[in-house]
Amino acid sequence: MKRLLPPLNALRAFEAAGRLGSFKEAAAELHVTHGAVSQHVRLLEEWLESSLFERHNRRVVLTPAAKAYLAEIAPLFEQLSQATARYGVSETVARSLSVNAPATFTLRWLVPRLAKFRAAYPEVDVNVETSNEPVESLQASYDVIIRGGPDTFYGYAMRPFLSEERLPVCSPALLQRLPLRTPDDLRRHTLLHTSSLPRLWPDWLASAETPALKPAATLTFDHFYLTLQAAIDGIGVAMGPTALVSDDLATGRLVAPFVGPRLPSRSYCTYVADGNATDERVVLFRSWLEREGMPSQTEPVRKKRTR
């Protein structure tokens, strides 16, 4: 016989909100946003076809039916917690750190550096998921969320750790075939675009006082990491964020043919739920990110001109 089970994440949000009498406190306990708790409760109400809370200005009150429901399910959560602790799973969970970060940042900056974190803190297991969803739209809870900023989100502590600017980059081989001495020389090149960032090249060309420049060709990709890989492979010139191409500039896989102009860009920041900000694993990871990120204001490696 099939079990009649409601959505478990929604049930967890309802239990916390009902026990604490507050969506805000439930969000802090579960390390999610106030909006996520509200969405989960609304989902459970739709599933049960019954209202669970009376919503007032600064508080929520359980309906009589919801009080009875909570009285029956609350002991089950406690039993589940005790059973998990008895079987030793809590030890593994306690030392795991869940991180959510954008895919291009993860691929090009975070992953190449994670071995250093593992070497320094072998006792902390890091689980990384990639996403570009806004902080307040994430449905799951994470110990550390990495996004652009600085932004302010209710219930979250924000700290910047990596700043960047954007400027043209290309492969040394391409630069040797088609030298770039001034921005006007881009007329002979293929400009690489990313569909989600359509203003990068127009804004840079305007800053370089060549707004009407027509390149030899353009090529557009749907992911930024593909655009950067195309630049490394010598297909064209990309607008490179200094933070994400710093390793390529340092090793010579890419070069920056112009000193400027540089387009300003948002910094990378960590967002941590207020109730989780003092967790030892979170403190270690945030501090490590800041040590890795703050000194990395990489100067572009320029191709020397030959006379």
Please explain how this structure is put together.
The structure is a single chain. This protein is 42% helix and 20% strand. It is an alpha/beta fold. The strands form 3 sheets. Strands 4-3-5-12-6 form a 5-stranded mixed sheet. A 5-stranded mixed sheet has the order 9-8-10-7-11. Strands 1-2 form a two-stranded antiparallel sheet. α6 (103-120) packs across α10. The longest helix has 23 residues, at 64-86. The radius of gyration is 25 Å and the shape is elongated. Residues 6-63 form the HTH lysR-type domain. One of its GO terms (biological process) is DNA-templated transcription. Belongs to the LysR transcriptional regulatory family. This is Transcriptional regulator, LysR family.
Supply the key terms:
307 residues; alpha/beta; Arc Repressor Mutant, subunit A; D-Maltodextrin-Binding Protein, domain 2; five-stranded mixed β-sheet; 11 helices; 12 strands; 42% helix; disordered C terminus; sequence-specific DNA binding
Indicate the topology.
Elements: H1 8-20, H2 23-30, H3 34-48, E1 53-55, E2 60-62, H4 64-86, H5 89-94, E3 96-101, H6 103-120, E4 125-130, E5 144-149, E6 156-162, E7 165-169, H7 172-177, E8 190-194, H8 200-207, E9 217-221, H9 224-232, E10 237-241, H10 242-251, E11 263-264, E12 267-273, H11 280-293
Parallel strand pairs: 3-4, 3-5, 8-9, 8-10
Antiparallel strand pairs: 1-2, 5-12, 6-12, 7-10, 7-11
Helix pairs in contact: 1-2, 1-3, 1-4, 2-3, 6-10
InterPro entries: LysR-type_TF_proteobact-type, LysR_HTH_N, LysR_subst-bd, WH-like_DNA-bd_sf, WH_DNA-bd_sf
Pfam families: HTH_1, LysR_substrate
Organism: Paraburkholderia phenazinium
